[in-house]
Amino acid sequence: MVYILVLIFLFILELFYFKLADRFNIIDRPNQRSSHNTITLRGGGVIFYFGALAYFIWSGFQYPWFFLGLTIMTIISFLDDVFTLSNKIRLVVHFSSVLLLAYQLVLFEMPWYYLLIGFIFVVGVINAYNFMDGINGMTACYSLAVGALLMLTNYKINFIAHDLLAFTLLGVFVFSFFNFRTKAKFFAGDVGAVAIAYILLFALGSLILMTGNIIYILFLLVYGIDAVWTIIRRLYLKENIFKAHRSHLYQLLGNEVACNKLLISFLYGLIQFIVGLFVIRFSNESLSDQLIFSLALVSLLSLIYLTIKSYVIKKYIITKI
Questions:
Q1: 27 — phi, psi (to 5°)?
Q2: Continuous segment of H or E residues that includes residue 41
Q3: CB-based contacts of 293, cutoff 8 Å, min separation 6
């Protein structure tokens, strides 16, 4: 009953935001990086935050430092969606939010390199999540896949409050209703991509720290492969990696090959979910078996990724020049 009430509340809230964004002209105009060609409302992913907020209030204010970091990260990302803030302001807020996340995870009581590694990883994943939010349904499908994997693992290990994940994913379901369409009602915006990445990273960090098992990082493998190999290729071509582009595999498939973009988003999520099931299966094996499995999995997916991307570039891009 609680889940049904939260779902109804979030759905009504999303409808209200739809009217608000339309009233105040919170829109996404097509640019060089865009995979859409019409003006669309943006910022609908703010519902992820309100899903977490509903849990925070309902739980009696559990995880206060995490939620404080999520709040200021969400606010600054939403303002950036509306006004386009300077990079310095965003960096300061993101830095503060990551420190609050680290404090909630008790990283300050661990050796200093835990904090350094955690900081680099969190910042990297948040930016990758934002970069990968480029076509309809991508953030929704991938977040549902990762969230489902975390919930499955939580049933066995109980590393985090289950309802935090449940309430957040209810927000993702609501967003999917408006976004997983050929013509989306609105986009997640920076606020959505950043907020859901922050929430999932908190859960993933809790899992890794409780179990001491780094293999769970592979719950983000599909995004990681696309993001890392794209950066490597752009560095090799001496391109500015901070400049907007459309060279991720999902962008090439959707824009150059003209594949169905909803199908691409669904497959990204499905592949990650299947990979995650194998990760859960191997999480109880010996360290050496986990290492062999991880290297084999990363190598296999990288080979498939690079083969497909090379084929697309040669057939659909080079031939057009």
A1: -130, 165
A2: strand 40-41
A3: 215, 278, 282, 285
Rg (CA), the chain: 19
Q: Which residues contact 235 (CB under 8 A, 6 or more apart)?
A: 241
> pLDDT tens for residues 18-60?
999 888 888 776 655 555 556 688 899 999 999 999 999 999 9
Other CB atoms within a 10 A radius of the CB of residue 229 amount to 16
**Beta carbons of 81 and 42 less than 8 angstroms apart:** yes
Do residues 104 and 201 lie in contact, with contact meaning Cβ atoms separated by under 8 Å?
no
Angle among Cα 173, 176, 180 to the nearest 5 degrees reads 155
- Cα distance between residue 274 and residue 142, in whole Å: 12
Type of residue numbered 268: Y
Question: Does residue 207 contact residue 160 with C-beta atoms inside 8 Å?
Answer: yes
pLDDT(147) > 60: yes
Entry pTM: 0.94
Is 269:223 a contact under the CB 8 Å cutoff? Answer: no
Within 13 Å of residue 103, how many CA atoms lie on the same side as its CB? 14
Sequence letter at residue 38: T
Quick one: CA torsion of 10, 14, 17, 19, rounded to 10 degrees?
-130
Closest CA to 189 of 197, 201, 181: 197
The closest alpha carbon to 153, from 309, 284, 61, 13, belongs to: 284
* Helix/strand/coil percentages in the chain, nearest 5: 75, 0, 20
